[in-house]
Amino acid sequence: MSLPPGFLDELRTRLTLSDVVGRKVMWDKRKSQPGKGDMWAPCPFHHEKTASFHVDDRKGFYYCFGCHAKGDAISFVKDTENVGFMEAVEILAGEAGMQMPARDPRAQEKADRRTQLAEVMEMAVGHFRLMLKTGAGAAAREYLSGRGLDEAAQERWEIGFAPDLWQGLWDHLKGKGVADDLILGAGLAKPSQKGGNPYDTFRGRIMFPIRDARGRCIAFGGRAMDPNDNAKYLNSPETELFDKGRNLYNVGPARAASGKGQPLVVAEGYMDVIAISEAGFGATVAPLGTAITEDQLHLMWRINPEPVIALDGDTAGLRAAMRVIDLALPLLEAGKALRFAIMPEGLDPDDLIKAQGPQAMQAAIDQAVPMVDLLWRRETEGRVFDSPERKAALDKDLREVISRINDPSIRTHYGQAIKDKRWELFRSRPQSGKGKGDWKPGGGRGFRKAVDPVLPTTKSSMLAGGSIEAEEMLREAVILAVLITRPDVLESFESQIERIDMIGPDHGVMQRVLLRHASDGPEALRDAIIAQIGAQPLEKLFRLNHVQIAPAIRMAEDDEIVTACLKEELMKLDAMRGVQREVTDATHDLDGVADEGVTWRLREAAEARNRASRSQTEDKTTYERAENGLLISREEKDAFDKMLANLPMTKGKGS
User: Fold this and answer.
1) Disordered: where is this region (predicted)?
2) Domain that holds residue 70
3) Among residues 426, 460, 487, which one ends one of the domains?
4) Where are the alpha helices (DSSP H) in 186-278?
């Protein structure tokens, strides 16, 4: 219906927004100023302890600085009462003492019919409940008792029974004087295809009333008693009252329980909802015989900003979870998320509670994983990433998935979370004791600590001594300091930084924080590092002489110098560690007798080392015009050459 001009303005004038909102919140007395119409409270749309929900009576608007909910009195009633626009206006008009404009005849007729249909549905509820208590319902009562539902629980959930009769409910309603079109319109009967009287929709089934958020019975769900029935569960057809994609089973009680602080749990079916609720988790809902729809997802978010999807621990349950992920990705916003509680394999929530008690269900809810974890599992499970091409294929798939997120902030955070997981997956190293064995994903110190110990014959070499490691740590320090000062350049070097196996104290932590928080800017990055390891390691890093004299630190605003410095330091560090790996492998292969192949490998390593050294004094780069950098010591070179000269030689190449 259309409202006359000025009606809504008059309605807003008569009502104070804080009075409307005050029915649902507890005002923060310290922050609120009632005299100015400036009110603050914990947000009714997401659970929090601080008062971030602001109501401005003068402007007639509310805004939450946490979940960003905003609107006026009408939108507040719509979202908190789960009603439409006109219903919200009617509620507020009643509070304001305003007469709603007369509806046009058709609209009034339609509203009257919906009221009549709802009354017929209540008659059906009563009939089915009565049938459960008769002799015909004995088997149904026994089944419910076996599922742990005593008589009191059956009353709480208004569970009934439809006897296996073609016209049991039809005859009952006709005896009450209900018109044929209302019985058919409510979805309680179907017209006969043979010209006879209509027949009951539900026969031989345990009946579960489905109520909307206002408590009206709008449909039924029926479980077949016959195990051979083609449809184990049957829902009412869609009617003027019932749209199965826009409603949830137990939505009204769940909203009330969630408002008292309980997590919103989303189960798969009626019996799961009842079992979970009876175990103490009253804020539990379920879709109505279909996969979760977009409308149902929005309805869940209006109840709780982070519903927990509780799914069976089988293949079907996981497939259902993946469908929810695909549905939710484009809809994600700040303050709208999902978590997933996957039951142990082979169990549904009802089974879990019966076997292990409510505490097991509580543990499953507490351990529910964020959606990004399940998304990562889907994209990586069962796949092998042992080649650049396979890794690139994963990257492509992940980019495509993340690109479906419309909210830029959420998309950025998902990208960072996926980047962290990818970094952990590809941060591989050989198995301990197998210098050239299979590589495994995971963290750790990497190649250097995984190979066998250096042989005694090489321990005296400067290449195996502390000076090499000290030089490597200094190069790590320069690289980290430059990137902490200029995190905006990390993107160009990200893959190289990911592969570095940091050995310096606290360098690994700084590396991980840098990769996660570089996009947050220098100040936020430093704060994140300090939060992880404290301020002292960061201060110590920037006090190092080699860091202080680095041109990229002294001239951090010069993009060309910063880039050249990082390229130079990364190249030298990579050359040094390449030499170290080759020397370690080669000396391990010596085992007392050298051959030409091993000696050649050592000489090549020495030449690579010398090239890295020469590049520091001969190249005329932008970086070198400001700083020559760290040089290999003459003592180290002499010691390495001496080791080569003393190696025994053989005439052939052997292993």
Assistant:
1) 429-451
2) 7-96
3) 426
4) 251-259, 270-278
| Residue 305's CATH number | 3.40.1360.10
Contact 205, 198 (CB under 8 A): no
Radius of gyration of the chain from its Cα atoms, rounded to whole angstroms? 35
User: End of a domain among 218, 242, 266?
Assistant: 242
**Angle at the Cα of 256 from the Cα atoms of 252 and 261, rounded to 5 degrees:** 140
The pair of structure tokens assigned to 283 is 């804020």
472 & 380 share domain? no
pLDDT 10s digits, 35-77:
777 899 999 888 777 899 999 887 888 998 888 888 999 999 9
Answer whether residue 276 shows pLDDT above 50: yes
Model pLDDT for residues 178-213, shown as the tens digit of each residue: 999 999 999 999 998 887 889 999 999 999 999 988
State the Cα–Cα distance between residues 346 and 249, nearest whole angstrom. 24
What is the per-residue pLDDT for 24?
A: 86
Number of domains in the chain: 4
The better pLDDT of the pair 290, 474 is held by 474
- Residue 587 has which token pair? 């000396």
Q: How far apart are CA 122 and CA 491, in angstroms?
A: 63
Cα angle value 462/464/470 (rounded, 5°): 80
Exposed, middle or buried by CB within 10 Å (0-12, 13-18, 19+), for 458? Answer: middle
The answer to whether the beta carbons of residues 14 and 97 sit under 8 Å apart is yes
Q: Does residue 250 belong to any structural domain of this protein?
A: no
Same domain, 356 and 487: no
Q: How far is CA 343 from CA 263, 268, 293, 312, in A?
A: 17, 12, 22, 5
What type of residue sits at position 552? A
Does 228 share its domain with 266?
no
Contact by Cβ (8 Å): 465, 438: no
Element (H, E) at 512: helix 507-517
Q: Which residue has the tokens 């295809």?
A: 193
Q: How far apart are CA 448 and CA 439, in angstroms?
A: 13
Q: Identify the residue with better confidence: 597 or 458.
A: 597
Three-state SS at 249: strand
Question: Considering only CA atoms, which of 79, 88, 117 is closest in space to residue 11?
Answer: 88
Sequence-separated (6 or more) residues with CB below 8 Å from residue 472: 503, 504, 573, 576, 577
Q: What is the pLDDT of residue 467?
A: 56
What's the CA gap between 616 and 56, in Å, rounded?
Answer: 65
**Same domain membership, residue 111 and residue 71:** no
